[in-house]
Amino acid sequence: MTDVTGTTGTLVLAGTPIGDVADAPPRLAAELETADVVAAEDTRRLRRLTQALGIHTTGRVVSYFEGNESARTPELVEALAGGARVLLVTDAGMPSVSDPGYRLVAAAVEQDIKVTAVPGPSAVLTALALSALPVDRFCFEGFLPRKAGERLGKLREVADERRTMVFFEAPHRLDDTLAAMAEVFGADRRAAVCRELTKTYEEVKRGPLGELAVWAAEGVRGEITVVVEGATESGEELDADELVRRVQVREEAGERRKEAIAAVAAAAGLPKREVFDAVVAAKNAARTGQEQGKGLA
């Protein structure tokens, strides 16, 4: 309970089940029962969780979600400074991973308040493990922008990322997102769509982005995590058309051609001159085609 001796409290980040409540870590129940303050993304979902676990919270329960995160953080830091043990839980998975929590963690650390965690289920790691894609190096990109133009821009920024990438996406935007990924990354890039992980209707759909985009166009429901293979490793052969496409993607994202050529060459492990020559040849071919078209007209 709250320490009145002047010692600061502890912030506990607790992972909650992403589907099957049986996946709740054993420590979660104990922390929920003994915390001075439980900050929950959705207090109704917290109530359902405690009922499923057969426990009761004894501390004060407050809401802590995107809409009040900035305003409520100082209040929670004050409680921590006063010696309280504050437990932070979100609807599913680990707090601060595409969920509320980062602001509170940063504020607590700034005040030299201890921060610890109750490890728990993670949609990111679960999807990565099930994807059958390389897992030695990966990055988490969270949710992509909702607007089509901004989404394309973000994807172009990571077009040459060599690590396996993990994304979250809403089911009603999945088809558009996969189509955009196929456009930017290439329709043959391998990927996996993980749906309803650990739940009754769990499904993992693996295949090239182009095929997955067609599949998703029929409509997909549930919580979605998308895992995408990284770009071609250095040393693997890329044809001239692919080199030109990668330069164009970077140019469309706002890079100058010189920088785009240098970046593509570095990612592919090729001399800049080779990429430059491919771009010039493509430009000349396009110009010749236009002139021939005018002549026929």
Summarize the structure.
The protein is an alpha/beta fold.
Notes on the protein architecture:
- The chain has 297 residues and is α/β, with parallel strands linked by helices.
- It has eleven helices and ten strands.
- Helix 6 links the parallel strand 6 (138-143) and strand 7 (164-169).
- Helix 7 (174-185) runs antiparallel to helix 8 (209-216).
- It starts with 9 loop residues before the first strand and ends with a helix.
- The model is unreliable at 1-5 (pLDDT under 50).
What are the defining features of this structure?
297 residues; alpha/beta; 5-stranded parallel beta sheet; 11 helices; disordered N terminus
Strand order in space, largest sheet: 3-2-4-1-5
What is the chains' assembly state?
single chain
Strand residue content: 15-25%
| Radius of gyration (Å) | 24 Å
Largest sheet: 5 strands, parallel
Regions with pLDDT < 50 over 5+ consecutive residues?
1-5
What share of residues is helical?
40-55%
Secondary-structure element string: EHEHEHEHEHEHEHEEHEHHH
Number of beta strands? 10
Q: How would you state the average pLDDT, rounded?
A: 91
Roughly how many Å apart are the termini?
A: 85 Å
**Envelope shape:** elongated
Summarize the topology.
Layout: E1 10-14, H1 26-34, E2 37-40, H2 43-53, E3 60-63, H3 69-81, E4 85-89, H4 102-110, E5 114-118, H5 123-130, E6 138-143, H6 148-157, E7 164-169, H7 174-185, E8 190-195, E9 203-208, H8 209-216, E10 224-228, H9 240-252, H10 257-268, H11 272-296
Parallel strand pairs: 1-4, 1-5, 2-3, 2-4, 6-7
Antiparallel strand pairs: 7-10, 8-9, 8-10
Helix pairs in contact: 3-4, 6-7, 7-8, 9-10, 9-11, 10-11
